[in-house]
Amino acid sequence: MAAKRGLLARYKAFADEYLRNGGNAYRAALAAGYRETTARAKSYQLLEREDVAAYIDMRRQQMAKRAVTPERVLLELATIGFADVTDYVSIANGKVRVADTDQMDSTARRALSVIKESRDGVEIRLADKVKALELMGKNLGLFERGARKEDTGEVKIVDDIPE
Fold it and tell me: What is the DSSP annotation of 19-69?
């Protein structure tokens, strides 16, 4: 009977808090109004319920659709593919200087995959540019034979560097 009316308000509150807090079932049970003495056991029971699990799955799918769009994926690939190494390091007087991450814009920081310091110095690694460009190119159909009929195969060199 409860299934026809939808999820009980307390179960829904538990599931929503579980998703909101990153998957801590105990804290979700407390937030949904369960007592400290029973919250841990109840949280496991709730996660095992078919209706609660189905609701959590449905909400995760909804959240993923809002968070991961084709446009966001392509923008992130573009961030990686068009990253400029001079956003991360500079060379002055023969010495490599690492940029302050607090001064980098968030777009530049998202292309970083590794920053680590060792006895040999600081290593900075960017995400794989070639792979990102390849994925964007495939998405745009750039690598399919005959995909661009207007492309004659000629190479034009444009000198747009100011003198």
Answer: HHTTS-HHHHHHHTT--HHHHHHHHHHHHH-HHHHHHHHHHHHHHHHHH--
What separation in angstroms does the CA of 64 have from each of 35, 70, 116?
Answer: 32, 11, 31
Residues contacting 55, CB < 8 A, separation 6+: 7, 11, 12, 15
C-alpha to C-alpha distance for 76 and 131, rounded to whole angstroms: 12
How far is CA 71 from its chain centroid? 12
**CA 103 to CA 153: how far, in whole Å?**
42
Query: pLDDT tens digits for 94-127?
Result: 888 888 888 888 888 889 989 898 888 888 899 9
DSSP letters along 109-145, please? HHTEEEEEEETTEEEEEE--HHHHHHHHHHHHTTTST
pTM across the whole model: 0.49
Reported residue count of the chain is 163
